[in-house]
């Protein structure tokens, strides 16, 4: 198994270890990596992590006829997952989930961090109807203070959603602690647990502002 749970006190925190993820993440961190390559790397790393993060999806036995005979065989059936990117940067991860699970539905949560207070400000919320019993996968490349993802999880729980997994690319220990104490039932998957936050709430060594690098806004 390529998974390790590096922090004994957070049993639902998984850092996915794989040479391809490590290599691609190093390229992603490089400030010289242009937006086009950055977007491709975000998508590729997400694909590799999503494979692990979806390992508990429930299956039903369905009848399939092969060229030779009938059989009962497992499939994802009625309750397809819901993918929820946190805007903006989570958008860069969404297509990878949809490649793996084309039947998934997509919700959107719009949040930005106030530059002074670092508190998340909500500006959009839309999730699929009748999806309370679905497995939800929230995606956002960065888990920094944890304010944004903690808020996103609370918004989903207020609507009765119970099965929530968070997939990010880089996590700070401070943010993992915030999520694990506010939402100890939520699994977190990441490609890296970085060192710490700086005074402006950016992850060290990190990769900078994920939204700006994805969309070329700075
Ligand atoms: C970034 C990132 C997360 C958030 C993480 O988004 O994509 O959503 O910050 O920080 P936190 O853990 O301290 O809350 P940002 O607020 O910069 O918005 P953007 O994606 O629109 O740039
Ligand atoms: N948001 C980002 O995009 N990067 C960080 O390092 C912290 C928050």
Summarize the structure in words:
With 218 residues, the chain is an alpha/beta fold. The chain has a single domain, classed as Rossmann fold (3-Layer(aba) Sandwich). Helix content is 31%, strand content 28%. The protein has helices at 19-29, 35-53, 91-100, 147-158, 173-182, 210-215, and strands spanning 3-4, 13-16, 60-65, 70-75, 82-87, 105-106, 108-113, 120-126, 136-139, 142-143, 164-167, 170-171, 187-190, 192-193, 196-197, 203-204. Strands 1, 2, 5, 6, 7, 8, 9, 11 and 13 form a 9-stranded mixed sheet that branches. The chain has a 3-stranded parallel sheet with strand order 10-12-14. The longest helix has 19 residues, at 35-53. The mean pLDDT is 95. Bound molecules: 1-O-pyrophosphono-5-O-phosphono-alpha-D-ribofuranose and uracil.
Hetero groups: 1-O-pyrophosphono-5-O-phosphono-alpha-D-ribofuranose, uracil
Structural class given helices, strands, pairing? alpha/beta
Shape type:
globular
According to CATH, what is the class? Alpha Beta
Average predicted local confidence, pLDDT: 95
Alpha-carbon distance between the two ends? 39 Å
Note the main sheet.
9 strands, mixed
Radius of gyration: 18 Å
CATH topology: Rossmann fold
The amount of helix comes to 25-40%
């Amino acid at each position: 198994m390529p998974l390790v749970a590096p922090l004994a006190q957070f049993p639902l925190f998984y850092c996915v270890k794989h040479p391809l993820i490590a290599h691609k993440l190093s390229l992603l961190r490089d400030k010289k990596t242009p937006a086009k390559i950055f977007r491709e790397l975000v998508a590729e790393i997400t694909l590799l992590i999503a494979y692990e993060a979806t390992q508990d999806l429930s299956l039903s036995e369905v009848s399939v006829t092969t060229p030779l005979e009938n059989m009962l065989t497992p499939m994802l059936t009625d309750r397809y997952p819901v993918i929820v990117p946190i805007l903006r940067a989570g958008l860069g991860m969404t297509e990878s989930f949809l490649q793996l699970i084309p039947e998934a539905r997509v919700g959107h949560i719009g949040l930005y961090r106030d530059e002074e207070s670092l508190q998340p400000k909500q500006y959009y919320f839309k999730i699929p109807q009748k999806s309370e019993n679905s497995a939800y996968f929230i995606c956002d490349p960065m888990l920094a203070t944890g304010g944004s993802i903690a808020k996103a999880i609370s918004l989903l729980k207020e609507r009765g959603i119970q099965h929530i997994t968070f997939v990010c690319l880089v996590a700070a220990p401070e943010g993992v602690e915030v999520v694990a104490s506010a939402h100890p039932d939520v699994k977190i998957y990441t490609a890296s647990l970085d060192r710490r936050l700086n005074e402006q709430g950016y992850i060290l060594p990190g990769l900078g502002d994920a939204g700006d690098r994805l969309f070329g806004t700075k």
